[in-house]
Amino acid sequence: MTDINTMISIRNIKKSYGDYTVIKNLSIDIRKGEIIGLLGPNGAGKTTLISILSTLTLPDEGYGTVCNYDLYTERNKIKKNVSVVPQDLALYPTLTAYDNLSFYADLYGLKGNRKKSRIKEALQFAQLEDWAHKRIDTFSGGMKRRINLVIGLLNKPKVIFLDEPTVGIDPQSRNHIFNCIRHLVEELGITVIYTTHHMEEAEMLCHRVAIYDKGEILDIDTPKNLIKKYGENYLEVVISNIPEEFIHKTKMIADVKSCTLVDKKVIIQCVDSFNVTREVMKLIQKYNLKIELFNVKNSNLENVFLHLTGKNLRS
Fold first, then answer.
1. What is the pLDDT of residues 100-159, one digit of tens each?
2. How far is Cα 151 from Cα 137, in angstroms, rounded to an integer?
3. Domain 6-227, CATH homologous superfamily name and number
4. The domain 232-298: what is its CATH number?
5. β-strands 265-270, 233-239: how paired?
6. CATH 3.30.70.2470 domain position(s) in the chain
7. Residue 307 buriedness (CB in 10 A; 0-12 / 13-18 / 19+)
8. 65, 102, 152, 258: which has the fewest C-beta neighbours closer than 10 Å?
């Protein structure tokens, strides 16, 4: 039996269309109140995976649960507990914000005071109460995104799938959406599956990130651990009259992977640039060397993605 704190648990899921396999024996566990970043290039199978987890399509093989309900036999129960917020705005531009929310509340089967209460909560959450009776086509891009997001909250889901929720919006609206997502997780315990093409968003927001390509999860871990595992930090130091012993001592520093001398430039590949920088500075002082240039290039999630998939996220 699945742990009550595990919102999604799938094992050996496979999905093919004709001879083309979209998902290959995929397994993953996602906990309650966790933000999981799903990063993969276009055509990697992310949409198909979300379609399976939200019951829009069935897998060919494998088994799993969402919100502790079986993917095959309890699909209607899953539907009541999940929500998908698509990248494309699902709004009627000539209707007001209130009328858009009312329309989707009807689809969720909400009625009477319960419906009114949910719509009021949604507008408050989006901080758009004063815009409730204005047409959507008068809204900014960020305001439309906020209404798009809270439509997905009308059914009070336990799991919500957010597909590129910050596309085409200003930094202020972006930060508002980030704060909304954090509130969903920290205060309400909702599990968030977050797809994005912006690595810095995943690095800043997600508890764990799944690097996904060709229907497989290549690795899943915290952004920090992924960067530590696959990322490569570099120090570039230009020094005059470098003694051979300096290179030898630098190679012996913990966390240094390699140390190469090219003309006057020392290129140091390392795991922890902070600690290595401190130790290199000690050696520079010890040998009384003159620094002409000291440059630190830290790794990030983009480097990890390129390392694992061999391609840019937007390709």
1. 999 999 999 999 999 999 999 999 999 999 999 999 999 999 999 999 999 999 999 999
2. 17
3. P-loop containing nucleotide triphosphate hydrolases (3.40.50.300)
4. 3.30.70.2470
5. antiparallel
6. 232-298
7. middle
8. 258
pLDDT tens for residues 11-67?
999 999 999 999 999 999 999 999 999 999 888 889 999 999 999 999 999 999 999
